[in-house]
Give the backbone structure.
Amino acid sequence: MASKQQRLPRAVREQQVIDAAVRVFSRSGYHSASVDEIAEAAGVSKPMVYIYLGSKERLFTACIHREADRAVEAVRAALRSGEPPELGLWSGLREFFGYVAANRDAWRVLYQQARTQGEPFSQEVHTARVRVVDEITSMVVAGTALPEGGRIVGERDAEILARIAIGAADALTDWLLENPDETADSLVDRVLNLALVGVERYQTGDIAAPAPGTAR
Amino acid sequence: MASKQQRLPRAVREQQVIDAAVRVFSRSGYHSASVDEIAEAAGVSKPMVYIYLGSKERLFTACIHREADRAVEAVRAALRSGEPPELGLWSGLREFFGYVAANRDAWRVLYQQARTQGEPFSQEVHTARVRVVDEITSMVVAGTALPEGGRIVGERDAEILARIAIGAADALTDWLLENPDETADSLVDRVLNLALVGVERYQTGDIAAPAPGTAR
Amino acid sequence: MASKQQRLPRAVREQQVIDAAVRVFSRSGYHSASVDEIAEAAGVSKPMVYIYLGSKERLFTACIHREADRAVEAVRAALRSGEPPELGLWSGLREFFGYVAANRDAWRVLYQQARTQGEPFSQEVHTARVRVVDEITSMVVAGTALPEGGRIVGERDAEILARIAIGAADALTDWLLENPDETADSLVDRVLNLALVGVERYQTGDIAAPAPGTAR
Amino acid sequence: MASKQQRLPRAVREQQVIDAAVRVFSRSGYHSASVDEIAEAAGVSKPMVYIYLGSKERLFTACIHREADRAVEAVRAALRSGEPPELGLWSGLREFFGYVAANRDAWRVLYQQARTQGEPFSQEVHTARVRVVDEITSMVVAGTALPEGGRIVGERDAEILARIAIGAADALTDWLLENPDETADSLVDRVLNLALVGVERYQTGDIAAPAPGTAR
DNA sequence: TATGAATGAGTGTTCATTCAT
DNA sequence: CATGAATGAACACTCATTCAT
């Protein structure tokens, strides 16, 4: 269809292709997605994909890079727009959850796909992926969360907290998909509630504090 | 290689093949993994894989099913061996984290791979995967956690807590892999520490309680 | 099933296998039919097929040979049981049609399959097949048909008549299968009727006799 | 071989592939014929076969359809070119025999192969094949044969006559192949001769008319 | 004798990638 | 610039055939 293409500038075409690729990679996974499929979804012929992006592998990394940038920028923008600082952690989480829920395709490519594909992507993709994960979560968890106190316990602990946030956000958007009557906001409310209830129970002694290094 | 024909009974060979498949699927992902690769890793010829397991797809679901059973049993056994009840949640989490960290291949196949492959696995695999996730986490989180009080807040909240635990365990074992000087136990200690610190800060007002439904 | 077989004498087993093979070859064609399928249909294990018949190819030729013998014998027996000589041609055709219609599996293997499979069967199978074709039809058409006059016109013409009979019988049993309310006998009646009508029309001039060597 | 990339338009290549397929299917049978073999015979690489024809099965049906069209057209054209009407039946048969003898590959695919392959081709192929058989033979036998008298005896009888003609033509071209000194024309002469002789003998009482429904 | 276990070799099919226009 | 045409290489799957028990 649409034969004799419209002579758009290269940069635009490239974005169209990446847009399509993110959608297709997200739905089918890296290996199942065929370049034909992506080209068709982008409305260009297959050689264009190769002229612009070079190879399927480089196309995939291009997706990773662009979505990494977008993700960082999205959360950063949200945080910039000034919440009162004490609510930093909560609002940061809210933005993060919101982003993941609102950009499922991008997130799937960025996080799930980029982790589960074997060797060819070890370095290039790994570092790009880690960049978002680290940057976003250090923004949300460490930086924003406790502006007054700096690091919570140590660098590693901050990273752990970050990973927990990421894994939770990832797993919870699956839950969101399976419960269509919930929204990203209602989910965040539930999570916060759980935290409060947990703390209360903890205070009343319903949950015993573990002595670290106890079991096993 | 492996010389010629070892003539083992079917049941044994089947397990060998599934063992190999879990390893290979875990490393390469479902689509990248070739049946040849799996057969070689199992020390059998390709036709054996088909004679015993039927197809690549059915081999994959066989992996899911077996690892699902094993995972449930592993955590269940750990919980049965009687910790003092107040420590239920902590020890449950410890066992769960320990399992995930100690069985990375199985977990990758069970959780990451089974989620990210497209259509062919919707039903069969999905339900098997959900079964572990639900069973394990309801064991760890809901059942064991609060034996005196039953459900925490509601069914959905229990599920959310379960998903958080799963997503966190998943993400944290990535972190473990990247920090080889840590162990599953030291990781659990760190997490518990963070929880305690969090609660303390919360109590001292360092973290403001959000009014649920606030932001955005 | 039926594990631990019954220790039957070799000759019997061989016939069982050939019986099954004829059925399966007839239904699926030589190449589609798998030795597994045949072994199962015969109620023996696959190695038995090889021990007794050697190879798939030799099994096929064994089918051809046996069915060739049976076909010749069937028609010969029918003809021996003394019809009045003038009816020889008609009753010969009747027997032949009857045989083909009543032994579809055998006929399919003997005639259709044996002609349409490529190279490996050129000689062995071809000669066996030709043997039946020639023997049966010379019996029916030439020998029996005109005992008083010997050959009709010449050897080649007799062969032509034979081929016509064979081709017609083959094609007509297809027609029989598609018209289940007809029987082999009713079909023969129809054919004879047609012949009579043809001759009558010919006599009345409705059909012009061609001058041989005319057209083109 | 055939050097590299000849860059022909799709329609041309499609016909080349079908041409080659008819030859190969005719020689080897549907199952023995490999797509590789066909591709090589067509002078293209295997993927072209799949890009243009989709699958081996669809390639086979494409052969059937094209040869069906050609066969119908060939006989129709021959009949159109005006023989004196009384000779209709004979010239019709002559054309039909001539076509079959001159297009053995096509005929083998159309008639022999299409009948003897098992299930996958039941509908699509069956109807296409039946279309030629019916159309050609009703043209030759019924329509052309007796323009003055319409149907011979009844619909079923016309069909029977048609089947006889087809089966005879099929069987006789085998005979032609085995007797290379004969031609399609000389064969037709022989057949006509036989018919005449038959009628004469019949008239002189050498052949007794059967009472339909007699024997058995 | 009889068979479950095992495989080498091949087939249909797909896909990333490139050339010729 | 843009694309239809073309292919090398690989992959899932099957089958006739044999060996070890």
